[in-house]
Structures are given as structure tokens and as C-alpha cells.
Amino acid sequence: MDQNINKVEQMQPTNGIATAGLIVSMISIFIQMAGIMGLVGFILSAVGFSQSSKKNGVGKIYGILGMIIGTIGIIYGIYYFVTSLSNLESTINEIMKNNTI
User: Fold this and answer.
1) Using CA atoms in the order 69, 75, 81, 86, what is the torsion angle rounded to 10 degrees?
2) Quick one: three-class SS letters along 85-96?
3) Residue-range definition of the domain harbouring residue 39
4) What's the pTM?
5) What is the pLDDT of residues 60-90, one digit of tens each?
6) How far is CA 85 from the centre of its chain?
7) Is residue 47 domain-resident?
8) pLDDT given for residue 3 in this prediction
């Protein structure tokens, strides 16, 4: 019984950078800043993935998922930015046509 009382639970090691990269990558899908958040998520995930070898593989999956989702966020952000510019250009052209004397 004394052994159970004195037994100390050890915390599982974590990889905070890989986790942060995954979270930022997931947020980049919903908040578009021309792919910048996706890039930040990708970089954090890549750093976390590289550190996972020093931590016995902890965070490897989060790093891989973060890089994949970050890449999707970058592509979606660039697409969103380009289509926004295209819409802006067509709106400006329409305004210029209507304001001619």
C-alpha cells in the first residue's frame, strides 16, 4: 500500500511546437491573410517534426498533419488573395465606366 502512495506519475513528454504548428495551420484555413498563417503553421510544424526525433517520436504526427494542413492553408490563402484582387480590379473598372462624362 505504501508503494502506491509513494508512486509518482510521470508526465508524458509533449512537443509544444508541433502542437502549435498544427493549431495555427488549422486556423489558417478559416482566417485568410494571403497564406501567411499557413506559412507560419507549416514552419512551426516542420520545426516540431524535426524535434520529434530528439523526443522519441513525440509530436511526429502533429508535425506531419500541421505541414499538410499548412500547405492547404497557403494554397487557399494565395487563391483567396488572387481572386480578391481580380474582383477589386473588375469593380474599379466598372466604377470607371460609370463615372465617365
Assistant:
1) -140
2) HHHHHHHHHHHH
3) 15-98
4) 0.77
5) 999 999 999 999 999 999 999 999 988 888 8
6) 23
7) yes
8) 55
